[in-house]
From TrEMBL:
Highest taxon of the lineage: Bacteria
InterPro entries (UniProt xref): Acyl_CoA_acyltransferase (IPR016181), Bact_Acetyltransf (IPR050832), GNAT_dom (IPR000182)
Cited Pfam families: Acetyltransf_1
Keywords for this protein: Acyltransferase, Transferase
CDD domains: NAT_SF
This protein's name: GNAT family N-acetyltransferase
GO MF entries: acyltransferase activity, transferring groups other than amino-acyl groups
Provenance organism: Kribbella capetownensis
Domain N-acetyltransferase as annotated: residue spans: 178-321
SUPFAM superfamilies linked: Acyl-CoA N-acyltransferases (Nat) (SSF55729)
Length: 321
């Protein structure tokens, strides 16, 4: 019989929770040294857990053994309608000595979440097999991957027949077309994403405005003199989905890539990804981050081939069915 006690999270739990988070992150960095070192410090881990605790309508639970905090779970809703009636456990939202006990913490915290109607649930979980297994036995499944790799040290090879170059104003029409390719693909089976689909006019207007933005490096791949794909690199801090413990220092970001359906599978995606990797190295970034829907059969197979290793799993559960 376990001796641990579960009760709601209180403000006074913050320092001990930060200690557990710093411990978890230290272990995580043994597998992924490129994750930010700072959060191995309890002081910075405390900043992250405190920010979560202070976010609107945050709530959670803690596990105690002989008076010592051995685990915590904190969730808070995101305002965006795209996630449904949601609750999110962010990268700093849980840490636990005994992975199995996350199930007790969830049982306690989720009662309120579901009472509040928050049935679309998301948790960002480090790639720790035991912890993931415990979450899986809470009916969570894998939705999204966060991944990292070092910046390359040698330039990419050339691919016969394929030219990758920086995009220019004359490419705007095809760039706008390619902008629609990703949401169109992700709306299909087996992704079924409800992501926003811009109209062609919105995509064109957006490119007219942003094509010269120096913060974004846009590449196009040409085959037989025709543009068949694009990719975009930028600083990782432009992405709101990678923050805190999931935001490595000095990292570039492969933020977008798409190849026209009829031109896929011939190496253009690899060449476009490698262009962003090389741009990241040339800009002075030490690592490159990307993310993908794990149900996207194309990106989930392409990016690991380019050396990306998964660091966090975004898990998802829809309660009530
Ligand atoms: C993802 C995408 C950009 C990849 O471009 P692509 O031209 O199809 O990919 P490539 O032909 O360059 O293949 C890249 C690597 O992935 C592998 N790969 C691609 N598709 C694969 C498949 N169906 N099964 C197994 N491996 C596959 C290739 O073998 C290759 O690895 P290798 O060079 O080591 O052999 C493209 O498929 C696409 O536009 N998909 C829809 C939009 C999208 O998902 N964008 C990414 C958003 S995160």
């Amino acid at each position: 019989m376990s001796r641990h006690l579960i009760r709601p999270f209180r403000e006074a739990d913050l320092p001990a929770a930060a200690g557990l988070l710093a411990e978890r992150h230290k272990e995580h960095r043994k597998r992924h040294p490129l994750l930010p070192a700072d959060y191995e410090s309890e002081r910075l881990a405390l900043v992250e857990v405190t920010a979560l605790w202070e976010s609107e309508r945050a709530s959670g639970a803690v596990a105690l053994e002989d008076g010592e905090l051995t685990g915590y779970l904190l969730g808070a809703p995101k305002q965006s309608a795209m996630w449904g009636p949601n609750i999110w456990v962010e990268a700093a939202g849980h840490a636990i000595r005994e992975p199995e006990h996350i199930r007790d913490l969830y049982a306690s915290a989720a009662a309120k979440w579901v009472d509040d109607g928050r049935i679309a649930q998301y948790a960002l979980v480090p790639d720790d097999p035991e912890l993931l297994d415990a979450w899986f036995r809470l009916a969570f499944g894998s939705q999204h991957a966060h991944a990292i790799r070092p910046a390359p040290t040698t330039p990419p090879p050339e691919y016969p027949g394929l030219t990758v170059r920086r995009a220019v104003r004359g490419d705007i029409a095809v760039l706008a077309q390619l902008d629609l390719v990703l949401p169109q693909h992700q709306a299909l089976s087996p992704v079924f994403s409800a992501g926003e689909m811009p109209t062609m006019q919105e995509a064109l207007d957006d490119w007219e405005e942003s094509i010269d933005d120096p913060d974004y490096a846009t590449f196009v791949a040409e085959y037989d003199g025709r543009v068949i794909g694009s990719s975009i690199g930028c600083a990782l801090d432009k992405s709101s989905s990678h923050s805190g413990l999931a935001r490595p220092d000095n990292a570039g970001f492969l933020g977008f890539a798409a190849v026209l359906p009829e031109a896929r599978g011939h190496g253009a995606g690899r060449a476009l990804g490698e262009a962003v990797l090389q741009w990241s190295a040339d800009t002075g970034y030490t690592s490159v981050v990307t993310d993908w829907r794990v149900t996207n059969l194309l990106s989930s197979r392409t990016w690991p081939k380019l050396g990306f290793e998964q660091t966090f799993h975004r898990l998802h559960r829809l309660v009530g069915y």
